[in-house]
Amino acid sequence: MNNQHSEVISKSNHDNKPGFFSSKRNKVLVAAGVVVVLFAALWIWKSAEIKNIKKVSEQREQALKQRADEVVMQADVKYMKLIAKPYVWAIRTEMMRGNIDAVNMYANDMVKEKNFQTIMVADDKGIIVSSTNKKLEGKGFATVGNGAYLTADSTIVDKVGGNTLAVSSPVMGFNKRIGTLVFNYSIKKTNW
What is the CATH number of the domain that holds 64? Predict the structure, then answer.
């Protein structure tokens, strides 16, 4: 009987042992662990969401920059066409008079303006009669530039190289073409 009594006591002692969650300290530790896990999960989720938002934002920003560059290019092309017309009118009169010195003067003044590079005028035979690069004078334009410019009936603006526009415009006399104006203009760089 003594043995039975000790077994009962030991069973009751075993049954009275406090469980893991019966201690206040253990409950606090578990609660703190759950909070940490929740914060970690929330942080990971938000980090992934922020990364996705940044990616979408960068794509939109790149698209806006590309569109802005296109708009600037279109404005430059329009600007070049507007400049070519009065320039052609001015040199037309001088070419009809045979006053190439005045044509040279116009070119030298214009090339001093920001972003203008080489300015050339070819006669009706395609020979360069005026150029801000004096080494080109007397040469056939087709050997140094696009020969198609010599026969074009309207102002042409082409992008050549990375950031240069080539502008050509016919110089018309009373009833025939007397020459061709060609100049290069450096496109403004956008700093996005």
Answer: 3.30.450.20
Q: Name the domain count of the chain.
A: 1
CA 121 from centre of chain: 32
* Cα-Cα-Cα-Cα dihedral sign, residues 75, 81, 86, 87: positive
Distances (CA, A) of 110 to 70, 84, 102, 114, 118: 26, 11, 12, 9, 10
Please give the Cα distance from 158 to 164 (Å, whole number).
8
Per-residue pLDDT tens digits for 103-123: 999 999 999 998 899 999 999
pTM score, whole prediction? 0.68
pLDDT at 73: 84
Q: Is residue 19 part of a domain?
A: no
